[in-house]
Specification:
CATH architecture of the largest domain in chain B: 3-Layer(aba) Sandwich
Largest sheet of chain B: 6 strands, parallel
Strand content of chain B: 15-25%
CATH superfamily of the largest domain in chain A: ACT domain
Number of domains of chain A: 2
Number of strands of chain A: 9
Number of helices of chain B: 24
Structural class of chain A: alpha+beta
Distance between the termini of chain A: 20 Å
Largest sheet of chain A: 5 strands, antiparallel
Strand order of the largest sheet of chain B: 3-2-4-5-7-6
CATH architecture of the largest domain in chain A: 2-Layer Sandwich
Helix content of chain B: 40-55%
Radius of gyration of chain A: 20 Å
Oligomer: heterodimer
Largest interface: A-B, 31 and 32 residues
CATH topology of the largest domain in chain B: Rossmann fold
Helix content of chain A: 25-40%
Chain lengths: 195, 583
């Protein structure tokens, strides 16, 4: 099977060491993580990690199952790029003099939908968000104008077909197990869940 | 410290009676948790960072039996042996740093073989964490890949809840090892103890998937249509305590059934549908027939590579039904046509109800035909050798005759393990204790000690090679001190036999560091006040085995066997199971 970009969405308890438990599931199979983002989810006490890897679907599915097996992980989904809406955020620090003097810089920023976060005499910080390629494009373009510092976040992604996590969590909090385990070969329904 | 002492005795009873505010130390809370979980035996080794727990243990001596092992690895293997014969959770104490790191092999072994184990390790004071304090290691991170769950406690108030979680996680669903690391300050800290509440639910943890009845129906349809159905069973049957349900299932379906090393003893050896052992050194018929059956039903097993051989030539002609409690096992190695998720104690009866009563006599006879071939080519010579050189197989055969198949047989890892699994006879479940997934040499002796504590009324025989025995023989000290009546049967071929066999077969007999020498094992045992003898003549075998079994207490019997005997049949690495060679 061909390798492609997959976005994994992992809901976890907010516990010390959870990043390690997640990371091990990738490193033990020698899978490189392309990007990672972890922050509190909309549900209090639950974290949402978004991890991007380049792998075949079969490998990704197995990793997801191993992830879900971890006691403090509630759920792990995987999706292709077509199944998610995603963004990265980036910050650019550029010498203010360059922007003030060169109209092309301003055009460039406008074109990429960047906005100023901080403007000082010596430098200005711009912020933008978009797909990696868009951010790459702006980074490259700004390089010519003395880009001082650059940082980007990991990918964050919304799953198009997701119904949110509140309902799922209610099921989990129920002492009676209610979640069905699904199978890609037999369950032909349009489900996003890995299992 | 004075307050701890005075509070201890007076308070334990009030906790039980009233469950109102009572002051306990963290250490006492640990021991109360063990009692609440019905733990009767702990295997452990003290040290600086776990001293408060050992101090509290001093007052619990009448309620908790503590076995002082000689090395922490021995402690955890003993706990594994205990778990395997008793069906209960094994408990281990170890100190921080080296004490904890010595547990790693056992944790990895318990993880891959799904043994319910709770390890409690001491840790340096919380304020010293991360300062490279004396005997400090980052135990949580070291053990993360080899534990089902682990947690560090730095505050005593967490102890009751976290230990309840630990026991629940260790034994539920697919069992596994759990490690709780407790800093020394938490062990001595006094807190308001509100009693122990067992854990039954964790929202992020789903030990058993919901049973999907449609899959059970699909599985039943496949089985009912099958002309050549074949069951493979593993330890899941034993862990699920589903031996009866399993037997009812195969008997109604009339389905030939073969076992993995971990599934051994779940079905009696003599059962007419038991067609033998799967895998690399398994029996001829089940390996060959794997590639001939039309429906393959895997029950509580995980298609280990030692069982499947080459995957792209594994049972390709068959429809595969995979029954397992762990969803991560489905499609991991072999794609299932019908996955039956769930605890087999629940799923098997549902399936049995839907299948038709059948007897596949002709199909079963095919197994028996192939078995005859194996008997002729391999088994006859192994069990009734034509030369004076003793074989491992004939030792096991004689052992069977004396125990009648009622003993618990513990093995180490290597040739003797394969031979024992192939030829030992079992009349009841939970009788085979071995390191299956990890292949841990040195497992045998300590595991046998634990196995005896798990089933003290039974005869426990540890069959061990000359190599593996030297890895953990210090545990003879544990036997000496606490009196576990373990029968130690060393099959000495003066080689690291399994590696030697591979070097002979695949490396042109370039024997590279496999000729291991041994001390006088009997003298070593005598040094530990354990009786024993060494034999090298066939004429002595029966009576020597009888002496060993009849001896009141532990006994070591060393049997000199053929130096360069090989274990056959064999599925060579990279070969298909049906390419199994008889010689």
């Amino acid at each position: 099977m061909l390798k492609q970009e997959f976005t994994l969405t992992i809901y976890t308890e907010n516990k010390v060491g959870i990043i390690g438990r997640i990371a091990i599931q990738f490193s033990r199979k020698k899978i490189n993580i392309e990007s990672v983002n972890g922050a509190p989810s909309e549900v209090s006490g639950i974290f949402r990690f978004t991890i991007v890897i380049n792998e075949s679907e079969e490998v990704v599915r197995k990793v997801c199952r191993q992830l879900e097996k971890q006691v403090d992980i509630l759920k792990a989904y995987y999706n292709t790029n077509e199944e998610v809406v995603w963004q990265e955020q980036a910050l650019f620090k550029v010498p203010t003099s360059q922007i003030a003097e060169k109209a092309s810089v301003e055009r460039l920023l406008r074109q990429y939908g960047a906005r100023a976060v901080v403007i000082r005499n010596d430098y200005t910080v711009f912020e933008t968000s978009g797909h990696s390629e868009e951010i790459d494009g702006l980074t490259q373009a700004l390089g010519k104008f003395g880009l001082i510092e650059f940082v980007r976040s990991g990918r964050i992604a919304i799953i198009k077909a997701s119904e949110g996590f509140h309902k799922k969590l209610k099921e989990f909090e129920n002492e009676e197990v209610s979640e069905m385990v699904e199978n890609e070969f037999l369950d032909k329904q349009d489900k996003i869940f890995t299992m | 410290m004075n307050t701890v002492e005075t509070n201890k005795e007076s308070n334990i009873e009030t906790v039980e009676k009233t469950a109102v505010k009572t002051q306990l130390s963290g250490s006492q809370a640990v021991l109360e948790a063990l009692l609440a979980e019905n733990v009767d035996t702990v295997f452990g080794y003290p040290g600086g960072a776990i001293m408060p727990i050992y101090d509290a243990l001093y007052d619990y001596n009448d309620k908790l039996r503590h076995i002082l092992v000689r090395h922490e690895q021995g402690g955890i293997h003993a706990a594994q042996g205990y778990a395997r014969t008793s069906g209960r959770t094994g408990v281990v104490f170890a100190t921080s740093g080296p004490g904890a790191t010595n547990l790693i092999t056992g944790l990895a072994d318990a993880m891959i073989d799904s043994n319910p184990i709770v390890c409690i390790t001491g840790q340096v004071f919380a304020h010293l964490l991360g300062t490279d304090a004396f005997q400090e290691t980052d135990v949580i991170n070291i053990t993360t890949p080899v534990t089902k769950w682990n947690y560090q406690i730095t505050d005593a108030t967490e102890i009751p809840e976290m230990l309840a979680k630990a026991f629940y996680i260790a034994r539920s669903g697919r069992p596994g090892p759990v490690l709780i690391d407790i800093t020394k300050n938490a062990q001595v800290q006094l807190f308001d103890y509100l009693g122990y509440k067992p854990c039954h639910h964790i929202r992020s943890y789903r030990p058993k998937p919901v049973i999907r009845h449609e899959y059970i129906k699909e599985a039943a349809e496949l089985i009912n249509q099958a002309k050549r159905p074949f069951v493979l069973f593993g330890q899941g049957v034993i862990l699920g305590k589903a031996e009866k349900e399993f037997q009812a299932f195969i008997e109604k379906g009339g389905i030939p059934s073969a076992w993995t090393v971990m599934g051994l003893s779940a079905l009696n050896t003599d059962h007419p549908l038991n067609v033998g052992m799967l895998g690399m050194h398994g029996n001829y018929a089940p390996n060959v027939m794997t590639n001939d059956c039309d429906v393959l039903i895997a029950v509580g097993m995980r298609f280990d590579d030692r069982v499947t051989g080459r995957l792209d030539k594994y049972a390709k002609q068959a429809k595969i039904i995979h029954m397992d409690v762990d969803p991560a096992e489905i499609d991991k190695n072999v794609k299932a046509d019908v996955p039956v998720w769930g605890d087999c104690k629940e799923t098997l009866p549902l399936l049995t109800e839907l299948i038709e009563k059948k007897s596949h006599t002709e199909w079963l006879n095919k197994f028996r035909e192939l078995e005859k071939e194996e008997i002729k080519e391999v088994i006859n010579e192994e069990l009734n050798p034509s030369t004076d050189i003793m074989t491992m197989g004939e030792v096991i055969k004689s052992l069977n005759e004396l125990t009648g198949g009622d003993a618990v047989i513990v093995t180490d890892v290597g040739q003797h393990q394969m031979v024992t699994c192939r030829y030992a006879k079992f009349n009841q479940s939970k009788s085979n204790v071995t390191s299956g997934g990890l292949g841990t040499m040195g497992f045998g002796l300590p595991a046998a000690i634990g196995a005896w504590y798990g089933a003290p009324e039974r005869t426990v025989v540890a069959v061990i090679g000359d190599g593996g025995f030297q890895m953990t023989l210090q545990e003879l000290g544990t036997i000496m001190q606490f009196g576990a009546k373990v029968k130690i049967l060393i099959l000495n071929n003066e080689f690291l036999g399994m590696v030697r066999q591979w070097q002979q077969l695949f490396n042109d007999k370039r024997y590279s560091f496999v000729n291991i020498t041994s001390p006088d094992f009997v003298a070593v045992a005598k040094g530990y006040y354990i009786d024993g003898q060494r034999i090298s003549e066939r004429s002595q075998l029966k009576s020597a085995l009888k002496t060993m079994l009849d001896h009141d207490g532990s006994y070591l019997l060393e049997v000199m066997v053929g130096k360069e005997n090989n274990v056959f049949p064999m599925v060579a690495q990279g070969s298909s199971v049906s390419e199994i060679r008889l010689k």
